[in-house]
Structure formats: C-alpha cells, structure tokens
Write a structure and sequence with these properties.
alpha/beta; Rossmann fold; 7-stranded mixed β-sheet
Amino acid sequence: MSNKNKASNFIEKIINDDIKNNKYSRKIHTRFPPEPNGYLHLGHVKSILLNYGIAQKYDGIFNLRFDDTNPLKEDEKFVESIIEDVKWLCPNWDGKVYYASNYFGQTYNYAVELIKKGLAYIDDLTAEEIREYRGTLKEPGKNSPYRDRSIEENLELFTNMKEGKYEDGEKVLRAKIDMKNPNLNMRDPVIYRILHEEHHNTKDEWCIYPMYDFAHPIQDGIENITHSLCTLEFEDHRPLYEWILNNLEDFKEEPPKQIEFAKLYLTNTMMGKRYLKEMVEKNYVDGWDDPRMPTISGYRNRGYTPEALAKFCDEIGVSKAQSEVDIAMLEHEIKEDLKFSEHRTMAVLDPIKLIITNYPEDKVEMVEATNNPKNKELGNRMIPFGKEVYIERDDFMVDPPKKYYRLFPGNEVRLRHAYFVKCLDYETDENGNVTEIYCTYDQETKSGSGFNKRKVKSTIHWVHADQSVEAEVTLFEYLMIDDDYNKDNFLDKFNKDSKEVLKNCKLEKNMKERDLEERFQFLRHGYFILKEKKDNLLKFNRIVSQKSSWKK
C-alpha cells in the first residue's frame, strides 16, 4: 500500500482492506445522492467532500446523483443550485449528473423480480393500519391479511398500480421479510407507493414511485458504486439495503457496501434542512443564500472559499461518534485561508472627523502602505493624507478608563502609515456626542522616515476625509443565540441581532477601482467581500470578524 493511500480515517481503512482482499473488480466508486427538496448546507459539504475526496485519493469515480423519488417535495431550482454547489466545491468533478428517476424503469423491473421470487406483495392496508400492524420496539409486528396473496395476483395488482387504476394510498407494494424482526425497518417495509403527481424529470410517465430505502441500493448497484457512505441515521437501514441487493440477481456478486459516519453539528447554527426552510418561509432570513445561513450558497454569498470549507472538513475528520464542532473553528479556517492572499485596507465603519490644526490647509501627501505584510508579492499602495481624516468613533474617548491607549485629550497616538497626532480639544453636539476632534501632528514622526525616536502605545487607522469612498457594510453574527433549542422552540433562539447594516462607512479611495467579489482585510474589523458597486457607493459583506479565534 503506497503512502498516498494510507488511511486517515476508519472509512479509508475499510476501503484499503477491500482493495487488499480484492473485494471489487472495479474502481473505487462513490456518490453523493441529495434529494432536490432544498439547498445544501454545511453538513452536506462534509458528505460531498468525503465522497469526492475518496474518489480522488483512490483514482476512482465520483457521482452526483439526485434522489428524486418524491415528486411532492422536489423542484428544478433545487437541482440547479445543488449542481452549482458541487461545481464550486469539487474543482475536478467531471460535471456528469445522474438521476434516480432515470432508473425508474429498471427499478420497477427489480420490484417485479422480488414479486416473482415471493419476496414482495401488494397490501391494501391503510398507512395508519400498516403502522398499527408494524408493532413497536418492544412488541413484534403482525402479518398483513394480504401478505399471502399469490405471485400471480401480486403481479396483476402491481401492473394495475403502474397503469393508474388506483387512487393514492389505495395500495402499496411491500417487501416480504419478517414482521417479528427486532429491526423495525425489516418488518415488511413499503417499497412502492401510488402518487398521481407530475415529476420534474419524468413528467406524467409514472404514477407509482419507489421508496428511498428501495431505490437507493438499486441506484448504487446500477452505477457500480463500491462504497455507499451515509450518515449515522441510516445505520438501522443497512440490513434492508443489504437484503435488497442480496435478493436481486444483478447485484449479488459484488454489492456496494454501506458505511455510516457521524453527522456534522456546529455550535450556534441550525443545521436541519426542514428548520432552515421554515426560517426562509417565515422571513427570519433573506432566502436560502442569506449569508447567515449555513447553506453552501449562503457561504458563497458571504465570501467563504471552497478551500476553507475543505480544510475545515479535513480538520474535524470523520468518525462514528456524534459531536458538536465549535463555530470558531470554521472561522479560524477561513481566516487562515485568506490571511496570505488578500489585500489589507483601512476602513472606518463608524466615522468621526479628526482635524489636524497645524497641518497645511490645502496639502495632500501620499503615504505608502504594504498591501499584506505576510505576502510581500502583493506589493504596496499609496494613500492620500491631509488635514482632515476620519477615524473610528470608538478610537476616541473623552474620559477613558485605565489602560485605554487610544486617543483622548492630552494623549498621542500614531495614525497608521502616517504621523503621530496629539489630541488638544474636541466638539460635541447638543446631546453631548463628540462631532469633531482637534489634534496637532509631529512632522518628524512620519512612518518610514527613519527620524522617529519616540514611541506611542497605540496605532489607529484612518481615511482621508475628502479623498475617500463611501460604503455600506453588512455585519453578520451567529444565526442562533445558543445551542439550547429543539424542534419546537428553535425560532425563539433565532438571533435577531445576527444582521447589522452600517451606512456612511468610509474607505480608502483606491477601493473604487476594485472588482466585485474581491475580498479584503479591513484592518481590525475582519475580512470582507465586495458585493455591489452603485454610483459612488460600495457594498460589502463581512466574511468573518477579526476578533473571533480558535486554537488548535
């Protein structure tokens, strides 16, 4: 076994053992099988990258296959969004798309095969009666009165179902297994139901549709999947998965192997698709691609990179044990991904004017700044400096507490890339709010001049008052207040302060020339992405705050 194929998790160890034992005569083949009934979220990212990554590692094949067996919930818009998500996450994906609905004819024939083997029957019980007959975890189920129909009668009834001769719910096809099996999934599960609904792909060709537990192993078998990777809730379904494959002649020889792994849970984040859908429908968020949402489209809109999500998934690893991951770990990975590649800039999000009283009235000089100290290849930029600049409001206090080293009356600070300034005075409005700050500067203290011998305890950022650009900046906080919620009260835990729009922000003048979707580090504020340019107004989303941190 080469070092390339050295196992990094328990799934890869199983695959390595299968390769060693020549279990499969075909390439390692994985798949990601989403139901197109919503947008993909971070939990799906883990599954996509696991399946895709294994195919890449073992020089195998990766399929994107839509589990579109339920026309009641599916929509073409979800199909399109999922394809875009997978393209974004998987740069070497071949772009081929598979559909469970393309196998409906074959799936029907496999159901007929089970009927002919006496392993499936048509049941007339209602859904409620089927539940009653099923039993409980403590009590065995009991046979349906229709369980012993002849093979000929079952074939005729199944044909009639296919030809639309019955109403929805009037009949179902059930696998004939064991109503006393301790696993409830093996108590004669329903494998086909009647649905007179138009399908997004097959239109009105079918009025009967296979259940997921029946269709899924068949789809895996048809596509020559070797390892069917599922989350832990499917562990109890594995015996049915194997029963179906072992009872169909086409798949007996080298059936796919189902392996389960733990789902991803993230702190301060709702991960359930149905609950995210409720947030969208009740307008708690601005759609599925709202940057607060843990959907892939939301992360894209917020400015995350696929590389950061991939590194995050790699760091959390793959296991059988359910656990919750601190959201700060995800934030750490996006900052690690961006810190070497993106330009830094000074942005004043809550501006207050600072006037340098001893600076020449009409003078504008250019000061030099490094675009990214961690990446010298990004070069330098020139920034205009003059008599009037904007600084952050919270960088000035009239009556500061101890160990406050920024600007206050009598104190001196450095304006980054420029000079030392000392506060002399300030003005307030009728409510006592500071409106202007008056300082003097020391012309011998220009950054990079080599003449500065004095030290100050604080450096603050700024932008030129006249030669700056206006911006609207949207800040995002965690979606949920905490993690103490359930399906009944989760909306009560929605963080109503998770979105804040700041207007009248001031940025360096050169930001006018930047392109949409470019990312930047706003000094002290975090990483941001340019989402809109309208006249002289720029609009940014904050990708991640500077203050959040995660230590390995």
